[in-house]
Design brief:
Layout: H1 2-41, H2 57-64, H3 69-73, H4 79-86, H5 105-125, E1 144-150, E2 162-164, H6 171-180, E3 185-189, E4 193-197, E5 213-214, E6 217-221, E7 227-232, E8 247-253, H7 258-261, E9 264-267, H8 273-282, E10 287-291, E11 294-298, H9 319-324, E12 327-332, E13 354-358, H10 364-375, E14 380-381, H11 386-390, E15 408-410, H12 415-418, E16 423-428, H13 431-444, H14 452-456, H15 459-481, E17 485-489, H16 490-495, H17 497-507, H18 514-522, H19 543-562
Parallel strand pairs: 13-15, 13-16, 14-15, 16-17
Antiparallel strand pairs: 1-7, 2-4, 3-4, 3-7, 5-6, 8-12, 9-11, 10-11, 10-12
Helix pairs in contact: 15-19, 17-18
Length: 575
């Protein structure tokens, strides 16, 4: 018994000694290799200047694609833009203060890794990059890089279409979106934000102030905080979506004071819809008006609000007769009405905590779009939806209790969740429409439609049985526990947008001009609503489902009347 035990003890001693020896050898070998590499990578004597150092800075920028040659020789280039180019330097040309021995060991190792990486990249990809500290404008973009511009004023530099993409923003992605909407310039900010417009300020800032990389394109510059990297958009790339065209709005009577109502005009023979729309788009007007050979550009105003359309036959005359008549054809241009696109967070924390409450699928996101553009303030959310943030709902990323937003989206019900808010806008929609919309969202996202197999599966009946009761309990709970309510019906908001929205804005204690409300009406669809309805969709509700839902509708209708609100719209019941 003692002999096997002695052998085991001897084996363990040898193993322990062997492990100790191997560990010491590994550490010594690593130290020797590190010292050898440092000696090779950090020579003592001065180096001869590289090929990039012997060229002027502007030439270096042109050679590596930091600046398009057309931007230097173009008529719009500003002195500040050229000055910004002169301030750019390669990391190899930047003097390092102090002797080398003052540098820390960590600094030497960082320089060693950087130089090895750039040496490896230069062997495999051609000329060296400017370094990790200087992201450059995208060299593969089709537009000309104009420069870096400030965007920290009271009004945005580019006021047109806007969207965000926290993960995949690229220069080409932004340019395609702006070109599709007939804008001339595409501006990228803070690495993930895209803005469009047709006008730029006369002066720019230094190129080094645009230092953020694009979230989806490493090495390309996408502005910075309050800084725009602006590209001129020339044409759509192959394979991208087609450029939007003008949309016919109807035939309308001319206003009494045309000079005041139509700020810009173009009169030429054989003017076409495309010519007039292009002229007004370039000047960032949302409306193009045709009257014979005359083209006018305008915004919707109280004097010309596009609510009283006439018979289209009154505008179907020949151009000369139409010019003498009192009617005109109105077209919607691809550009946005920019009078209501500026939005920001509240300058001070709100004293009243307001909820925008609704059952899922009741149009909460669309209502947020209307409120943000009417008030000029972002709306928040009890949840975080990155898809909504990428579509421009910047308050989606803010904490829902920060009180920096004008109101907070929620689908919650129950006493505890409701009593956290001081007041609420309760948005109610026909449960049949809400259930279909929410089922589409669950199966195919915010803008998609559920497939036929989803409607025919057991998933749809189970969904109706559980969610129909939620539609009812949601309204009943808010009526019972809500401290101060404004009940808004989705259908009424669709039918009578401006009066209903004016009531909602007043409830939020914000004063809004009539022009801004008309701007919202002109941009009412936004970018987050399903377009139209699938014509081949069968009736998804069985007689049993209808009996269940109609019972909940009658319950909610009675509760609204008991709380001194008007009942549900007549179109809700019976179905």
């Amino acid at each position: 018994m003692a002999k096997p035990f002695f052998r085991l003890q001897k084996f363990l001693r040898r193993t322990q000694f062997l492990l100790f020896f191997l560990t010491a050898a590994y550490l010594m070998t690593g130290s020797l290799l590190l010292l050898q590499r440092a000696r090779v990578a950090l020579p003592q004597g001065p180096r001869a200047p590289g090929p990039l150092q012997t060229l002027p800075v502007a030439a270096v920028a042109l050679g590596v694609g930091l600046l398009d040659s057309r931007a230097l020789h173009g008529p719009r280039v500003s002195p500040e833009l050229l000055l910004g180019v002169d301030m750019l330097q390669s990391p190899l040309t930047r003097p390092r203060p102090g002797p080398r021995w003052l540098r820390s060991r960590n600094s030497e190792l960082r320089q060693l890794r950087r130089r090895w990486f750039h040496h490896f990249m230069s062997d495999s990809q051609g000329p060296p990059a400017l370094g990790p500290e200087a992201p450059r404008p995208a060299i593969h973009s089709r537009g000309t890089y104009v420069g870096c511009f400030s965007d920290d004023g009271h009004e945005r530099t580019l006021k047109g279409a806007v969207f965000y993409d926290l993960r995949k923003m690229t220069v080409s992605h932004c340019q395609d979106a702006c070109a599709e909407r007939s804008y001339v310039y595409a501006g990228l900010e803070a690495g993930a934000e895209c803005y469009c417009g047709n006008r730029l300020p006369a002066t720019s800032v230094g190129l080094e102030e645009c230092s953020h990389e694009c979230k989806g394109e490493k090495g390309s510059v996408c502005g910075a905080v309050d800084r725009l990297s602006v590209y001129r958009v020339d044409e759509l790339q192959p394979g991208s979506r087609k450029r939007r065209t003008a949309t016919y709005r109807g035939c309308f009577r001319l206003p009494e004071n045309m000079t005041h109502a139509f700020p810009s005009s173009l009169i030429q023979a054989n003017v076409t819809v495309e010519t007039c729309s292009g002229f007004c788009s370039q000047k960032e007007f949302p409306l193009a008006i045709l009257r014979g050979w005359e083209c006018y550009c305008a915004y919707p105003t109280p004097q010309f609000n596009l609510r009283d359309a006439m018979d289209s036959s009154l505008c179907g005359q020949d151009p000369e007769a139409q010019r003498l008549a009192e009617y005109c054809e109105v077209y919607q241009t691809p550009v946005q009405d920019t009078r209501c696109t500026d939005r920001r967070f509240l300058p001070n924390k709100s004293k009243v905590f307001v909820a925008l409450s609704s059952f899922p699928g009741a149009g909460n996101t669309w209502a947020r779009h209307l409120i943000e553009h009417a008030t000029g303030f972002y709306t928040g959310s009890y949840y975080f939806d990155g898809t909504l943030y990428n579509k421009g709902f910047k308050g989606e990323k803010d904490h829902w209790r920060s009180r920096r937003t004008i109101c907070v989206k929620t689908h919650e019900s129950g006493r505890r969740e409701i009593e956290m808010f001081d007041s609420a806008i309760l948005l109610i929609r026909n449960p049949y429409r809400s259930l279909v919309a929410e089922f589409n969202r669950k199966c195919a996202g915010h803008l998609g439609y559920a497939a036929d197999r989803n409607w025919k599966s057991k998933e749809w009946p189970d969904f109706v049985n559980s969610y129909a009761s939620w539609w009812s309990s949601h309204v009943l709970d808010w009526l019972k526990y809500g401290k101060r309510l404004l009940v808004v019906h989705y259908e009424e908001l669709r039918r009578s947008l401006v009066p209903t929205l004016r009531e909602m804005v007043a409830f939020l204690n914000v004063s809004v001009s009539e022009e801004r409300l008309l701007c919202v009406e002109n941009n009412k669809e936004g970018s987050f609503r399903r377009r139209g309805r699938r014509s081949h969709d069968p009736e998804p509700f069985t007689p049993e489902m209808k009996d269940l839902i109609n019972g909940y509708i009658r319950t909610v209708d009675k509760a609204l009347r008991d709380h001194n609100w008007t009942g549900l719209p007549r179109e809700y019941v019976p179905r």
